[in-house]
Write a structure and sequence with these properties.
Length: 109
């Protein structure tokens, strides 16, 4: 197996999985990115051959292997977010007080 090709695929697929599981793309943490890349590498290197999916073919990466790694990375990162935050998609600014209209603040006009 070509290890640099697998690692490149894991980084790209992990980055995509991190962007999908975050509601705001400017709040991506290094921990979440590392979890997604690790999950994609394990899925492409260990799980894909066990299920008969070729991660690397004759001419480089295969579509089935890339999609399998992406699905596993997204699933693992979603599960980690569900366990840590109680939701699949992470939004750091969700706890902030929403800005309402003047009628919502209780002030008289």
């Amino acid at each position: 197996m070509n290890v640099p090709t697998l690692l490149t695929m894991a980084v790209l697929v992990g980055w995509l999985a991190t962007l999908i599981t975050h509601a705001e793309t400017d709040d991506v943490s290094l921990t979440d990115f590392a979890i997604a890349v690790g999950a994609a590498a394990l899925a492409g290197g260990l799980l894909a051959p066990m299920f008969g999916v070729a991660a690397i073919g004759e001419f480089g990466l295969t579509l089935s292997g890339t999609l399998f790694s992406w699905a596993c990375a997204t699933l693992v990162l979603g599960t980690v977010n569900l366990l840590r935050f109680g939701t699949l998609r992470r939004n750091r600014r969700a706890g902030a007080r929403p800005v309402g209209t003047l009628a919502d603040t209780g002030h008289k006009v």
